[in-house]
Amino acid sequence: MKAIEVTDLHKSYRTAAGRVPVFEGLTFTVEQGGSLALTGPSGSGKSTLLNILCGLDSADAGQLALLGEPAGLLGPDDWADLRRSRIGVVFQDSNLMPALTLEENVRLRADLAGQSFGPVRDWLERLGLQGLGQRYPDQVSGGQRQRAALAMVFAMAPDLILADEPTGSLDRHTASAVADELFRWQRHSGCTLVLATHDLSLAACCDQHLDLASGA
Amino acid sequence: MLLRAMLSHYRRHPLQLLALLAILTLATALWSGVWTLTSQARDSMAAGDRQLAGQQVLVRQDGKAVSVQDFADLRRNGLCVVPWLEVASDSGGARVIGLDPLAMSCAEAAPSGSGPVLDGKPFVDISEAARLAKDRPSVLRLYLATEIGHLPEGWQRQVDPAALDTGELADSFLLNLNALAVLVVLVSALLIRSVYTLGLDQRRHGLQLLERYGVQRRRLRRYLLLELSILAVLGAVPGYGLGLLLAEVLGSGFGSAMANLFDTALLATPHSVTGFLVTVAVMALVVFWCGLDLFKGGRGQTGMVRFQVPLALGALIAGAVTVLVAGSLVSAFLATALLLLGAGLVTPRLLQRLAAPHRDMAPLRLWRRRELGVLIRRLALPLVALQLAAGTVIAVHALVHTFEGTFNQWLDQRLSGDLFVEVPDGKAIVDVVPVLSQRELAANWHPVLRGQVILAGADTSSSLDLMATDSRSSLVQNWSLIEGVNSPWLAVGRGAVLVNEQLARRKGLTPGSRLILGFGEQTREVSVAGIYADYGRPAGEVMMDVEHLPQDFAPAFRSLTVTLPEGSANSRREELLASLQHAWQVDTLQVRDNETVHQLANRIFRQTFALTRAISYLTLGLAAVALLLTGWVVLGSRQWYYQLLVVWGLAGKSWFRVILTLAAELMVSIWAAAVPVGIALTWVLVQRINPLAFGWSLPMAIYPGFWLELMALLALAALMIAGAFWLRRPATGIAPALGNGEER
């Protein structure tokens, strides 16, 4: 079963200088449980594509089907439902609410997804955050924050994870640890992963690789 | 180049620059407007004092009102006296003063120059004033323009009653205004500082970057101070102009209030350099206060936070104790300032404590409460400013409404009767008793006589207003007294007197106190049977039964209060008046009906508080605008996190509900903090400051309906914030950059 089907997708931005195309005629598919790495220089449309895949942005033309649902039939509330319970999004940084502790952040995400938040502490422990659950995001390191962000996504048990440079702000060692956790859980849970990254070694860990600069 | 880099913040956030300028302009307008009005009032009262200081009037020893004939007799005796005929205007506002130019010539030649000073009042020839006096209430005074050893038989000197005892009250009135002006300055200074420091916080990162590039910190601070000073001047100059405009707009109502309270016209004093310099000085102080942050660099904050609660509690306790024992207006204001300071210091901490969530709350609710705590902390200054402004509005509203209610009730007592008929000169009341005894014409009636009486004291004697009526009349027996002996009206019927609150406070009188009253040559010791409320004027007054007036007492004014039979038609009123005219053999009668007098009195007394009300509402408006502006900036800096909720699947309506609830909780917090301040301030105003400032107190009353109105206004502000935020949300995609919203 295909988790994502993109056919002849077009997207451009209107600027003062005129219309600037981001991508034109983009076509690809990702199988359920598979993983896709999106690479390309800054401005090539990686984040834009991720936004389109979670309904926060829309394409100018083309077809998109997501988790078996044709995007053309989805209204804003349907997209919101999908993001709440089936699509997990991870950014490069600032995935956590600063006024909540790490544990409360994970509980909030699980609650919105309709999941029980009993195993929240387990998730934090499995991601190496034991004893840090009561700390606030500004009281832990960047790597620990990203692990907490993964814990939030894992706690909602999504069908699809969209990760926008999840290790971009981390040192090599921490980035590798975070990526390992992500891939381990993706394989374990059978969810689909789309990853935007500049790190080619990280991209190599995915089943598929799409370079948005060349369209290949 | 450096300047351009520093100012780039405003290029990126032009609205913030406009907001800062708007706050500077509005705040300057408000405080310069209030300052202008206060200084005009001060100048006008000083001019009034100069007119009246040390002046003596001649009064008849038999207590009768002086007449034009008396003036002629005294001049024939060679005395330099100046007649002063004061005639009320139609509208009850400004008065017309009639003077005799020939008599003035001897006053101007007098070496002491103690004749009345001619500034600040409209003067006409005495013949013109006499013509007006035929159908309007008037008072004739004879000023003694030269010092002489012996007075003619039957005459005595008296300090001008118009100047009696108003000095202290006038000072209190000015002090009230000054206190209001200080409150306005403090609230607006808080607002300016909050808007400025918020902008500075946003720029801190860029400034640190410049420092890293090698720009000296000292140089950066100098530039920032220069920038702040230029902004202050740019805001203050139009603000000062707006302030003058505001003073002009508020001036008419304020002038009427002064005329009614102190018989002093508000003089249109020319715009002085001092006014502008004061505005500049206040602005410089506020700039200095804002600039302190630049030099402090965040030091001292922790210490301040540590001592905030003990300091607040200390101020609250000291304020509460002082307000209870305050014996002067200055100490009452000092106590109020301490109470407000304490409230301002403790409120943000208290609200944060109240907003703290329970751990077992639903996660989204828990987030909202935590976010509320962040907003309360980051918006502490404008929040406290809005709290104090809203508290003041609650208190002023309660004061005005209590006053209106009490005053109306008081008017109903004082004006219980349908018609007030002036007794024509030379006619006797006894002549119309047969007419008034006819039940089909008058259901009830009583006479009212007014004049002057001398209150003999240990050191000095002073003149008092006297009112005499029939204490057995059912029209006066329902008066509610502030204090009284058992069966006070019975006591009045037996020769005791009632005194008004002003006299009781000034002379420390209580029921049972004894007074020595002088009626011409005759003195009489009387007992005080009770104290009655008498609003809106400073003069002391005693009230006694007509039966106990000396036979030779000559009242200055006599009238009849008549109640028409129930359900009687207009024709009965006309029939009664015709019968009175017939009995007195006069062609016309001066008659006023109850409703007209009510309307006139209400209009006059409403003006008394018009300025206080207007300024408190303007301050509230300014505080609300500042909170909206700063709230907008703070919420903007948290936008990323609010957008995260959308990413996490909160649909449009649910998201709007969350933001609206957050904004509403913030506003309700401010409202909840303002209500106790408002109640406390109401009590201080009606029970402590008002008696000290105006000589009369009011009952304590609260108006929850108005609190709800205020809450509805704040809810509307919350809706505006949430609505504006809804419009501001990114049309597509996720907010691309973080503000400085990392704070917990």
Can you walk me through this structure?
The complex is a heterodimer of chains A (216) and B (744). Chain A has 216 residues and is an alpha/beta fold. In chain A, β7 (160-164), α6 (172-189) and β8 (192-196) form a beta-alpha-beta unit. Chain A has a single domain, classed as P-loop containing nucleotide triphosphate hydrolases (Rossmann fold). Chain A contains 7 helices and 9 strands, in the order βββαββαβαααβαβαβ. Chain A is globular and about 50 Å long. Among the domains of chain B are: 1-53 and 170-298, no CATH class; 55-159, no CATH class; 416-596, no CATH class. Chain B has helices at 2-12, 14-52, 68-76, 101-109, 126-133, 166-212, 217-262, 273-296, 301-325, 329-355, 363-378, 380-414, 433-436, 474-477, 488-493, 501-507, 570-584, 594-608, 610-637, 639-647, 652-694, 704-728, and strands spanning 56-60, 81-88, 95-99, 123-125, 138-144, 155-159, 419-422, 444-456, 462-469, 483-484, 497-500, 514-519, 522-532, 541-545, 557-563, 591-593. In chain B, the strands form 3 sheets. In chain B, strands 8-9-14-11-13-12 form a 6-stranded mixed barrel. Chain B has a 4-stranded mixed beta sheet with strand order 4-3-2-5. In chain B, strands 1-6 form a two-stranded antiparallel ribbon. In chain B, β2 and β3 form a beta hairpin. In chain B, α10 (329-355) packs antiparallel against α11. The two termini of chain B are 35 Å apart. The chains are: A alpha/beta (216), B alpha+beta (744). The interface between A and B is medium-sized, with 36 and 28 residues.
